Every structure is written in C-alpha cells, then in structure tokens.
Amino acid sequence: MQDGRAPRIKNRAPAAIQVTAEQLLRDAQERQESQFRAPKQRVEDFEELHEYRGRKREEFEKRIRQTRSSIKEWLQYANWEASQGEFARARSVFERALDVDPRSVQLWLSYTEMELKGRNVQHARNLFDRAVTLLPRIDQLWYKYVYLEELLQNVPGARQVFERWMQWEPDDKAWQAYIKLEQRYQELDRASAIYERWVAVRPEPRVWVKWGKFEEERGRLDKAREVFQTALEFFGDDEEQIEKAQAVFNAFAKMETRLKEYERARVIYKFALSRLPRSKSGSLYAAYTKFEKQHGTRTTLESTVLGKRRIQYEEELQHDGRNYDVWFDYARLEEGALRDVREEGATAEEEERAANRVREVYERAVAQVPPGGEKRHWRRYIFLWLFYALFEETETKDYERARQIYETAIRVVPHKQFTFAKLWINFARFEVRRLQLAAARKILGTAIGMCPKEALFKGYIQLEFDLREFDRVRTLYEKYIEFDPTNSAAWIKYAELETQLEDFARVRAIYELGISQTALSMPELLWKAYIDFETEEGEREKARDLYERLVQLSGHVKVWISYATFEAEPIPIPRAMREEAEEEEEEEVPMVEGDPVRARQVFERGYKDLKSKGLKHERVVLLEIWKAFEEKYGAAEDVVKVQGMMPITSKRRIVDKETGQTVEDWDIVFADDERESNPTSFKFLQMAHAWKAAQAKSGGGPSAAPLSGFVAAANASAASSNTTGKDGEDNPRGHDDGHSDVASSNGGD
C-alpha cells in the first residue's frame, strides 16, 4: 500500500482451491496446545500414603494461613479430609472454619452434609441444632433440619423443630410447610390449629382465604363459614379495611356458589359492594357480574352491569370532572335504570331511590360550572340544566322542582356577557304547558329586556303565533325590527305574517319601509321577496315599477336578467279576478302571458347599461341568457343578432405598471366596442374573420365554430340564411375558434 491507498489487485479470479470456514476452525483446533495436566501418582504402600497426606495437609495449611477468611479453602481442606476417611480431622477443620466465620450458611450446610454422608446422624442433628440456634432467620437450615427428622420417621421430632421455628414467626412458606406436614400424616385438627395460630400472627386476607378453603376441602362447612365470618368481623365496617378484605368476600361468595347457596353468595356480594366506593371495587364487581351471568336472573344481571358502568363513569369523572359528555351518558344510564325499575313493578321506595340517584348525578353535573366567561365553554354545560328540568317534568312529574331548576339555571348564566335563548324559550314553553301564559310571557319579556337576541324574538313570536295571538305577534315584530332594522329576514317574516292574514296594504307598507332602510344586511332578499309578492298577487305593473327602482338603485346583471325573465314569463291573474274564478270553481289559476318584446327591450337596456359601466364579464353573462331567450321566444334573425354581439378573447401585449415589462394578457373584445374605439383595426379583423369563414366554407369541411361578432357584422345581409342560423346554433358562445384566430392573426398587436 502506497500513500495510504489500498494495493491494486491485478488478478481478481477466484483461487483454484477454496478454504471453507469449517476447515479454518478445524485447523485452529488442531494447532491449539494441550492444557497442562498434573501426572497421576500411584500410591503403593502406607508409607507413601502418609507422605502424600502430609504433603497435601502442608499445602492446605499454607493456603489457609495465606487466605484465612476464604471459606472456599476451608471447604476444600475439610472435604479432602473427609474423602480420606479422616472424619475427626475433617470435623477439626470445620470447627476451625466456624471459629473464623460462624455465620456462613454454606459452611454449616457442608458440615452437616459431610456428617450425613458418613452416616453420623446424631452429629448432624447436633450441628443443625447449633446452626438454627445461631442463625434462626435462615429458613434453609430449618428446612434441612425438618427434612432430616421426617426422613428418619421422627415425626414428633420434626413437629418439635417446627414449633421452635414458629416461635420466630417466619414467612408464609414455613407455616404452609408445617401444615403440609400435618396433612401428610392426616393430623387435620392440628393443621386447623396451625392455621389459627397463623392468622393470629399474620391476619392478612389471603391467610383467612387459605384457612377457609382448607376447612371446606376437609368437609367442615360450618367451620369454613365460621372462619370467613370471623375474618369479616376482624376487618370490620371501615371502608379501608373492607377494601383490603375484598379477597375474603370474593372467596366466601365463591364457596357459597360451589355449595349452590346462590342467595347467600348474592347477599355477600351486595354487602361488600354496598360498603365500598364504586371506584375501588372493580375486581369485586367483575366477580359479581360473572356470578349473575351464571346464576342470576335478567334483573339481577342488568343491575350488575349497571353497577359496572357506574364505576367506569366515576373513574372518567375523577380524571376530568368537566367532561360533560360523560355526565350526559351517566345521567342517561341512571334514567334508563329508573325506567327499568318502573317496568319491573318495583315498590315506591325503590322507585324513589332510583329517582334520587338520577337527581344526584344531575346535581353533581351542574355543579361543574365552566371556568372563564367564554360562551363556547358553556354550550354543552347548559344542556345539563335543560335535561335535568325535562327529567323532573316528564319522568317524576315534579313541576315545582322543574321550575326551580329553570330559575337556578337562569341565575347561573352571566347574561351581561352572553345568554342562551334555548334556556329562556324552554322555560317559557314549560310554563305554557302548565297553562301559565302570563308567566311564560313575563319570562320572555324579561329575556328580551335583559339580553335581546334574534333567537329570543323568533322564539317569542313563534310562541304567540302558535297561540294565534296575532296582535301580539305584530307588536313583537315591531320590537324585533326596532332592535335590528338591518335584518332583512325580520322584514320578510313580518310581511309574510301579514300576507297570511291577507292584509295586503300592511304587507306593501312593511316592504316599502324595509327597502327604504339605508343599511340592510342582504337587501337583495328583501327586494326579491317584495317582487315575488307582487308577482303572486298578479300585479305586473307594480312588480315592473319595483324592477325599475331596483335597476336604478343597483344595476346588477342578475337584476337585469331577472327583470327580463319576469317580462317574458306568465304570472297569475290579479287576486280580485282570481277570487271570481274561484267562485266559478275553476281548478287551475288562470295565467297572464308574458311580453317577449318588453323582455327584449329590457335585455337591450341592460346590455347598454353594462356597456356604459365597462363590465365585460357581466355583458357576456347577459348575452348568454339573452341568446337562450331568443332561441325560445324569438326568430332566427333575433338569434343571429345576439350571436353577432358575442365577444371574442384576444391576446394583447400590455406594459406591467409594477415591473415595466411587456406581458401578454387575454382580453374580451366586443365587436361594437372595437367598431367605436378602433374603426381601422375593426375593419381589418372583420375582413380576416370573413376570409377565415370563407376558407372553411370553400374547403368543404364542416364549420368547426360559429361566426363571431366580426363575421356576423360583415355578413349582416346573410344573417337570416339557414346555414348561418344553424352555424350560430352549434356553439352559443363562439369563444374557442375566435380565441385561436385572433391569437394567430393578431399576435403582433
């Protein structure tokens, strides 16, 4: 490798003999050096044996002197002496080691194991006795000691060892080992007594449960019930203790279920659940639900599921108390439970208890007042009050309580910042249902006086309209218009009311007063409603006057189109003539035909007006509607005339004012505008389009586009011909080819 670069490989072909990974590993294994092994020494006589033992003892003593605290060295020394059959020397080594570290468990176990291998049982017993006396908290030593005694069939001795062990109050495994010892020898009464001592030392629920199951398995059912009852008495009625004892209740109920005492089991479950909060009894509720699914009726099962869902809602509300959607679901759950109780024919006390649960949920829900003064935070909250009041009115028939709920809700809402019309209106309609009309009117009047709002006016007006109090409705509409004279919808609704009452003079007065307002929101709606009214009444002259006033005021293209369409279409005959026709029992209302001539004049006026204002796109829209009108009502020459007024799109170069560069832009060009402004270029374009049309005609192919305004102006004398008429009807706009023609012939403009 030169200059830090990899060497060049000239021959990249594979080697003739490939070496595998297996061969590499085998070569490496063969080349390893063998480990050193001490030579085996054969002992021929006692002299050599004594010499060998002396040498080994010297080595062990030397290593012990160097590492006196190393138990490993002591164990090797002692085990070697034992392997030589020198038990006295081995005991001496173990004793010396115990002097160094008397708390070494490994040392005691190796010492006892050496004695047991040498069948020195009494020595092993003495060692275990010394070990457990010195180390009473080491369970392994006790287990070995007990196992030794039981192995020797010395059951009283094993029991005595256990008794010594139990005085130290060991963990649960030790107690269970003692109980299993008694069970192996069928001493069940002794085992029961041990359980009793165990719960006295460690009164935990799982110990009580084990004791109860033991008594059940040996057939002492009364004793098992007594054990569980004693456990429940021990834990008492404190909520914290009952929560701790859920396992005892569960085991007690399951035992009664196995004994087919289903009512006892149900009572146990209900006793525990009634004294535990819903958020802390999830597992117990799950067991109760499973029990009811297997052994309960439909009613008990539904009540169990209901309790489980209550727990879920409570947990969600603990996480976020202002989650109003959860409150809605919770309240609906309790209302459904109340309906189920009624369907089952429950007692009045049970029904009242279910109703109180619903009230409790609603009271807790409405207590969660939204923070801040923004209305968006209150939108969901206010429905809690409405549903609460509706519940009291429809379910419990407590009308006075429902009235108090409405009043409290109105006091809670900060009406100076915002209000809720639905709250006022529902309160008023509640009073109407209670036949308290004066109270309902007072409520809505207070609402309008305190916080006037469009929805309040509409609700009050609808209420009076439903009661057929038309004078009051008129008064309310007047107040409504005084509150917001710019609201076109209010004027229209007021006029529609008078139309229904057939007071047409008041209708016209209302419309006139409305359109005379200087500031109106969406005035076109009011004008349209006024014109539609006159049209339905058959007053064409009055409607025409309104259109004339509107085009003078607005001049919008839609107004001109609507005006022209009005003149062309038929309208009903006037109301006076209509009533005469009704007396003659005519089924259909006679119509007065429109006047296409007047409509055409309106189109012409509208076109000139838009042209004077320089509105090109609006003129195109008007021409399209005009052409459709002529195709329906006019002759062929009228269609050609309108077609001749159609514009073309032209590409022109203009100078951008911001950048100063010349850019190309598309523009709509009308023939009449071009004729008036640029006669020379108009003549040129007219001839070019005429030549284009002639070329297309002489070529024998079908004309791909209608004549533009320029060609129509050049061929005005032939406008009535069938060919031209058909060509003009193929494409109503004529923009596409005009676009390409001008772009090609007038690209240098």
From TrEMBL:
GO biological processes: spliceosomal complex assembly
Query: In what residue span(s) does the Pre-mRNA-splicing factor Syf1/CRNKL1-like C-terminal HAT-repeats domain sit?
Result: 222-312, 350-548
Q: Which UniProt keywords apply?
A: mRNA processing, mRNA splicing, Nucleus, Repeat, Spliceosome
Q: Where in the cell is it found?
A: Nucleus
Task: List the biased-composition ranges (Basic and acidic residues).
Answer: 726-740
What is the protein's major site of localization?
Answer: nucleus
A GO term from the CC aspect: U2-type catalytic step 2 spliceosome
Extract the coiled-coil ranges from the record: none
Q: Which SUPFAM superfamilies match?
A: TPR-like
Superkingdom field: Eukaryota
Q: Provide the Pre-mRNA-splicing factor Syf1-like N-terminal HAT-repeats domain boundaries.
A: 59-204
- The ranges of region (Disordered) come to 715-749
Query: Which family is this sequence assigned to?
Result: Belongs to the crooked-neck family.
The record's function comment reads: Involved in pre-mRNA splicing and cell cycle progression. Required for the spliceosome assembly and initiation of the DNA replication.
Mind telling me what this protein is named? Pre-mRNA-splicing factor CLF1
Q: What are the leading ranks of the lineage?
A: Eukaryota, Fungi, Dikarya, Basidiomycota, Agaricomycotina
